[in-house]
Amino acid sequence: MATLINTTDTTRPRHPEKMARPDSPLLRKPEWIRVKAPGSPVYAETQKLVKEKKLVTVCEEAGCPNIGECWSKKHATFMIMGDTCTRACAFCNVKTGLPDALDRGEPLRVAEAIAAMGLSHAVITSVDRDDLADGGAAHFAEMLGHARRLTPNTTLEILTPDFLKKDGALETVVAAKPDVFNHNLETVPALYLKIRPGARYFHSLRLLQRVKELDPTMFTKSGIMVGLGETREQVMQVMDDMRSANIDFITIGQYLQPSRKHAPIDRFVTPDEFRNYETIAYAKGFLMVSSSPLTRSSHHAGEDFARLKAARARI
Description:
The chain is of the alpha/beta class and 315 residues long. It is built from 12 helices and 9 strands. The chain is globular.
C-alpha cells in the first residue's frame, strides 16, 4: 500500500483535501436519498437538552441526513473531546485544527444527558485527538464509568478514533467495557491516501482485531462509505478483511459530499446494489448488516444492537 501522509503534527490547522483541491460540483440527490426537514416537538426537546448540557453531537457537526428522524425519537450520537479534529479527512464535515484543552466536566454531562433522555442504548463518538498522549482514551473510559453508574441498564456503544501511535490507549477503552466497540474503516485501501490521509487501513483493521483478542465477548462494528470511486471487488475485499478480524457488524452507506470543498461523489449507489451488498455480507458471516443509502454508524443503533444480540444467541 502507498505511504500515507502523516497528519499527527497539530501545530497548525491542516485540511489538504478541503483547502487545496478545486471546487467540485454537487450532484443532485436522487429521490431515494432525500429526507424530510427536522421540526417535531420531540426534536426541539432533544435540541434544547443538547444545548443546556453544552454537548456536541456528531448529528450536527457531520451534517447527518438522519438527524430529524433520530432526534424526533430522542436518539443522539454524542461527540466528546470538542468539535475540532486533528485529522484532515476529505469526506468529513467536522472542522480541522488545534483543539482546545479537554473539558473535564464533559464525561459527567454526557452521562447525565443519557439519563435525562432515558436512553436504552447510547452512542458516543469523538474527534481525533492526536495532540493527546493517549488520544483521549482516558476521557472515553471516564465517560463510560459515569454512564454505568447513572444508567446501569443502558447499553453503551462507542465509535472511536484509531489511537494511532498511542500505546495502551485501546486497552484503556476496552477495560471500561463498552457493549459495542465501533471503529470505521470508512473506505477501501486504494482510496486512503485521498480520502483518509492521516490514517492507515491495516492499523484500523488490526485495532478491531485486537479488541476481540482483549475481550472476545465484546461486539465489534465497522463501516464504509460507497460512492467515492471504489469498485465492487474492492468492497468485497474489505468485507473479507473485516471477517478475518472477527468483526461482527458491518455498515455500508452512501457518501454524501458536505460541501464543494470536500471529496466529490463519484456516483449514487442504487438501493438494489445496497441490498446485494447486504446479502453478500450475511453470506460472508457477519452477525449484523446495515446496508442502505442512508445507513450511518449510529442510525437505528439501539434496534440493531438488539438484533445483534439475538443473532449471537442463535449461534
